[in-house]
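Q: I have 103 residues here and want to know how they pack in 3D. Can you give me a structure?
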Amino acid sequence: MTSDDKQKNLNLLKTTAGMTANQRLVVMLYALHPTDRSGAILETAANLAKLVGMAPPVFSRTRKQVIEAGWLEETEKIGHIKYYRLAPKHLGENVVVPLRRAT
């Protein structure tokens, strides 16, 4: 982990200070877990819940709260399983491409 990554994670902790402990844990899990090229975590809710020591219903309920707060966004759905990623705007990434005048 680079110094920049550590700073991003510290900033993320600061930004989530008003959330519950479980909500912050879900956000940090999505920030730190390996992702695919789109930034999605391709793990089931049950596996993610086990990873952070939460009961699956608690994890699902907490993740739903984090989604509703705009921290996570759905990237794809395979069958009945939805995959999510941390919303780029919360990572400080510029998601708007500046327009240039054609010459």
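Q: Anything worth noting?
A: The radius of gyration is 15 Å. Helices lie at 3-15, 21-32, 45-52, 56-68.
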